[in-house]
Amino acid sequence: MSDINRQFMLARIPSGPLTQDCFRLERGAIPMPGDGEVLVKARYVSLDAANRAWMQGATYRDAIEAGTVMAGGVLGEVVQSRHGDFAPGDLVSGDCGWQDYAARPGKVLRKVTPTDPLSHLLSIYGITGLTAYFGLIEVGRPKAGETVVVSAAAGAVGNVVGQIAKVLGCRVVGIAGSDDKCRWLTDELGFDEAVNYKSGPLYKTLKAACPGGIDVYFDNVGGDVFETVLFQMNLLGRIACCGAVSAYDGTPPAHGPRGVPGLFVVKRLTVRGFIVSDFFEQRDEALEQLRAWVADGRLKVIEDVISGFEALPEALIGLLNGENRGKRMVKIC
Amino acid sequence: MSDINRQFMLARIPSGPLTQDCFRLERGAIPMPGDGEVLVKARYVSLDAANRAWMQGATYRDAIEAGTVMAGGVLGEVVQSRHGDFAPGDLVSGDCGWQDYAARPGKVLRKVTPTDPLSHLLSIYGITGLTAYFGLIEVGRPKAGETVVVSAAAGAVGNVVGQIAKVLGCRVVGIAGSDDKCRWLTDELGFDEAVNYKSGPLYKTLKAACPGGIDVYFDNVGGDVFETVLFQMNLLGRIACCGAVSAYDGTPPAHGPRGVPGLFVVKRLTVRGFIVSDFFEQRDEALEQLRAWVADGRLKVIEDVISGFEALPEALIGLLNGENRGKRMVKIC
């Protein structure tokens, strides 16, 4: 065990798009766990669009403050424990931040069962897969034959949403940011159609891809895409609001989408924001279903694993720019 | 039976606030019911903010076209029937429009049981009362002790929403357009607080009235009020979207409320548009409950009845300007 703890500090809160100079690499001593705490060595750090939102203010968690360790989900190994539920060698997940070692209260960590490959615990069997599963099934409530649209469709959550919707017998249309991604969604992941929101007016391309309108929209982006989809929703449609990445990496939009709440009334839509922990009571059942779909090949696990602690800032910046396909994470050791 | 049928035609579609010259009074012959049709003589015409929305385009019904009889809900009496389910003397409700007599297919009419006073069939035991009941209870799902906010609180639906929420043990705050209305809501109808959105910044006055945040918002107005309330919603709050009257009587807003969908996610809100007919299977049960609350004095029935057919245009214009308290209707005969 090395005796140096590398840490990426959030040096300053970005006011526009996130840049490398918002982070500062520091090297310090490995912390000592206090009473009830556990010392965790990071194996993988999860990169999520929400990381950027946390910099802007309190959300479902406190804001990250400048001068503190950058926050982030970690899959790690217990190296020392002063909490009865954990022992050295245990695999745990929790928000340990961007650092090699973190001393964290046992109560904020969750013991996880090793899986081969380990990375699946951050993708399909982690927050990502469960977010897609619960958001689509519990919030979107699609029925076979309905049209499901998902934005950021090539991203970590989006690709899983689309694949599950196909398993459920829906017609699935993805919205993504390049022609390459769109081809990949249809050719490799079985989406019925995919439209590139950066090429041509989305209203028209989406309309062509959804001639019967949209029954369920899984929204990862908010903003103009949300508005465009809203105008094409069918009566009694459902919108699962998972994130609003279009508003995270820059100044928040001056205005919201037109048609709110007028079209909610006229179309009698149910629009619901959620986070995955709202459904954690059903977690085991969901994981069992996901494992079955992966095992029989109906669900492809798409991961984008980058190696090396020092790649963290660029990995997040790239994710916010739409570089990744599937779940992006950084392998620490 | 007079042999003249007075009709208000929608002479032109208004492009801004509704004015008297959008209507034209005509006098013609009483129509003859065709096969399967019923001739209905109007007793009361219901005035609703939605009447104005219908002029702007298709909603949950077709748009009203210029040059046709103005549409509107009517409580009337069958004077002639060529439909097996109806006989002269039956009391019926349906969209018969602004005219003394209408020949309408039996299938679009509903037979109703006379009540004393008859007007209650258009207010508390009609669309108005049922909209308040289902929107609050089935969509808003308030629990005792929660804070419920309702906009257009002195209006037909709003006052009933607030009164029912009080019966259910909630803390109730109304938003209305004058100090007089606000005083009336608290002093006469038992609202805990009421704020005048026209006096001072609503964000501050609402915040003062809802120090613990808002759990359920029953939205009748959309627009800026919707946005202001959204920012004060509590985690896991519910918004029942009943109408967007702020957008009906003029040009639609250029933009929607800020915070959509970002705050839906962060606060994990459920925001749902509905119309009363979505719940008609539960109508009998709802009416029974409403009758019980009226009978034991827990629900006051607030009506604003104007006399005379020719008052119809001014009655609707006044309603859109917020003149009424409770359910506005015009008594025809």
Notes on the protein architecture:
The structure is a homodimer of 333-residue chains. Chain A has 333 residues and is an alpha/beta fold. Chain A has two domains: 5-122 and 303-331, Quinone Oxidoreductase, Chain A, domain 1; 127-277, NAD(P)-binding Rossmann-like Domain (Rossmann fold, 3-Layer(aba) Sandwich), CATH 3.40.50. Helix content of chain A is 25%, strand content 26%. Chain A has nine helices and 15 strands. The first copy, chain A, has helices at 49-54, 127-140, 156-167, 179-187, 202-209, 223-230, 262-266, 283-295, 312-320, and strands at 5-10, 23-28, 37-46, 73-81, 91-95, 101-105, 110-111, 147-151, 171-176, 193-196, 214-219, 233-241, 270-273, 303-307, 327-331. In chain A, the strands form three sheets. In chain A, strands 3, 4, 5, 6, 7, 14 and 15 form a seven-stranded mixed sheet that branches. The relative contact order of chain A is 0.15. At the A-B interface, helix 7 and strand 13 of A face helix 7 and strand 13 of B.
Could you list some keywords that capture this structure?
homodimer, 333 residues, alpha/beta, seven-stranded mixed sheet, 15 strands, globular
Please describe the topology of this protein.
Two copies of one chain form a homodimer.
Chain A: E1 5-10, E2 23-28, E3 37-46, H1 49-54, E4 73-81, E5 91-95, E6 101-105, E7 110-111, H2 127-140, E8 147-151, H3 156-167, E9 171-176, H4 179-187, E10 193-196, H5 202-209, E11 214-219, H6 223-230, E12 233-241, H7 262-266, E13 270-273, H8 283-295, E14 303-307, H9 312-320, E15 327-331
Parallel strand pairs in A: 8-9, 8-11, 9-10, 11-12, 12-13, 14-15
Antiparallel strand pairs in A: 1-2, 3-4, 3-6, 3-15, 4-5, 5-7
Helix pairs in contact in A: 2-3, 2-8
